[in-house]
Specification:
165 residues; mainly alpha
Length: 165
Amino acid sequence: MKKAATVLLWVSIGVEVLYVIAALLGMVIGGATSPIGKFNATAVIAALVMFLVTVGIPMLAKVIFAVITLFGLKAKSKLFVTEIIAIVSFSGVFSLLSALLNNIVFMVVSGFGEYSLGSYHYITAGMSWVGFLHGISTVLFIVALSFSIAYKKIELPYLNSISEE
């Protein structure tokens, strides 16, 4: 279970890095192929804020939780509080906060006019094209954390009892 958790954590982080790169490219392509005709600075700033919140913060959180989990696995720690917090966070808490912020940014951008709203829509639609990569990364991350909990709860006590005999 330890090796499976480690491999899945690394694969999850790799897919998340791929998602960051692809989402940034999707935003550029979505903004460049916009039929609006005007390139609006307000829409670009709002889209970058959404990129940082919906892509940057989850990636940073995944990296932090992965590092803590990997060090916990290496140190053979029996505590799995970090894994529980990460599973709860990535099972829906971050999605709810992201949806709430998306609605707030959408309302702010719509106040700047229809060109801003149209440009914002095409830029964020470009980012949404590759959203499946984030879903894959999140599922792999949750499975890796589950394997880490299973290792700490089942295998680690078993291995410790064998070493005592």
